[in-house]
């Protein structure tokens, strides 16, 4: 029986602990609000009285908390207990937060793996749950069987921040998709078209458009955005204001779609009018205003 401790029993931490119990691991759990451990304890999990006790109970410790700030709240007093142990932190955060946390764990003599969970709680324990890991390769290899029991574990590099970079990039893709779908559904909804009736049309359209992504990737990697262009950015920038104007006329807020129009105009002004829309990757890159 592999011993594993799980710290943080929100929706995701509880699913992770449940998957470990289902695969016959000896699981110790801790949560700030202790009642969230009740159902796991009924399935055989051991309760720790503190996060530090949970760390001391196993060589492999998985933390899944709301933010890095809350991870520090939970684990701050357990630093010395991490010596000789592996901490796997599945809390969502930035690459820099992951690196700083990894340094803190290493400073206490522990191994660190950061993770990005590309799944929702009901998917945990199934192969469809992709979980990305970065940091100590030795720790990943050592813990691989346990980590694979929670989903498809993929190691993406020894920079502790790499998993967070992929995680946030994939979430960007998801939110872009959701933003488009939300606006589209509101726009047809302004004429009382039911979302359920519209969805098959939207899905077919999005599936067709997604086939363009590999080609876009090729253009980004070669930096050649002007070759064999089918639908130029200039043409699209001329049509895009119709989407904004019609939305306003239909009483639909344009806050989700306006930024794309502004970016297209900026790119055309910068000389990308005859380029493919993939050139927007170049236009927004190397912009460190937020840094
Ligand atoms: N749930 C999801 O769909 C997504 C899937 C992808 C990954 N995310 C990230 O996973 C982290 C945890 O998410 P969660 O769904 O488990 O979140 P909650 O159910 O809200 O549970 C939050 C846990 O954090 C504990 N907590 C909050 N503040 C503190 C604190 N100051 N000290 C100690 N623990 C704290 C909280 O404890 P309690 O409120 O029950 O006492 C929960 O255990 C997250 O990064 C997602 O972005 C989930």
Helix and strand composition category: alpha/beta
Provide the gyration radius in Å. Answer: 23 Å
| Unreliable segments of 5+ consecutive residues | none
Strand fraction equals 5-15%
**Mean of pLDDT:** 96
N-to-C span: 46 Å
Hetero compounds: ligand FVH
Total of DSSP H or I helical runs spanning 4+ residues:
12
Looking across the biggest beta sheet, what order are the strands in? 3-2-1-4-5-6-7-8
Please outline the helices and strands.
Blueprint: E1 3-7, H1 11-22, E2 26-30, H2 38-42, E3 46-47, H3 51-57, E4 60-63, H4 68-75, E5 86-89, H5 95-107, E6 111-118, E7 130-135, H6 137-148, E8 152-155, H7 162-189, H8 195-210, H9 213-222, H10 233-249, H11 258-272, H12 279-284
Parallel strand pairs: 1-2, 1-4, 2-3, 4-5, 5-6, 7-8
Antiparallel strand pairs: 6-7
This protein binds ligand FVH.
The site of ligand FVH has 21 residues, from α1 and α4.
Quick overview of this protein structure:
By secondary structure, the protein is an alpha/beta fold. 51% of the residues lie in helices and 13% in strands. The protein contains twelve helices and eight strands.
Features:
alpha/beta; 8-stranded mixed sheet
Task: Tell me about this structure.
This protein has 291 residues and is of the alpha/beta class. Helix content is 51%, strand content 13%. The longest helix has 28 residues, at 162-189. The mean pLDDT is 96. It is built from 12 helices and 8 strands. Bound molecules: ligand FVH. The site of ligand FVH has 21 residues, from α1 and α4.
């Amino acid at each position: 029986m592999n011993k594993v401790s799980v710290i943080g029993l929100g929706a995701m931490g509880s699913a992770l602990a449940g998957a470990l119990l289902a695969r016959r691991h000896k699981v110790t759990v801790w949560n700030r609000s202790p009642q969230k451990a009740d159902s796991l304890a009924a399935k055989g999990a051991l309760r720790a009285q503190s996060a530090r006790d949970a760390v001391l109970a196993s060589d492999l410790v998985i933390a899944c908390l709301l933010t890095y700030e809350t991870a520090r709240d939970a684990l701050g007093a357990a630093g010395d207990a991490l010596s000789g142990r592996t901490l796997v932190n599945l809390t969502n955060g930035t690459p820099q937060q992951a690196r700083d946390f990894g340094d803190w764990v290493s400073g206490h003599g522990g191994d660190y793996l950061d993770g990005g969970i590309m799944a929702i709680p009901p998917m945990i324990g199934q192969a469809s749950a992709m979980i990305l890991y970065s940091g100590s390769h030795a720790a990943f290899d050592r813990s691989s069987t346990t980590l694979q029991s929670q989903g498809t574990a993929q190691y993406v590099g020894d920079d502790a921040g790499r998993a967070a970079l992929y995680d946030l990039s994939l979430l960007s893709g998801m939110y872009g998709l959701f933003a488009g779908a939300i606006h589209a559904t509101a726009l047809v909804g302004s004429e009382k078209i039911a979302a359920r009736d519209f969805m098959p049309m939207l899905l077919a359209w999005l599936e067709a458009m997604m086939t363009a992504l590999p080609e876009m990737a090729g253009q980004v990697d070669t930096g050649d955005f002007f070759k064999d262009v089918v639908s130029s950015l200039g043409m699209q920038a001329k049509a895009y204001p119709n989407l904004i104007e019609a939305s306003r006329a239909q009483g639909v807020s344009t806050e989700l779609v306006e930024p794309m129009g502004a970016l297209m105009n900026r790119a055309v002004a910068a000389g990308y009018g005859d380029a493919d829309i993939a050139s927007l990757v170049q236009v927004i890159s190397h912009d460190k205003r937020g840094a």
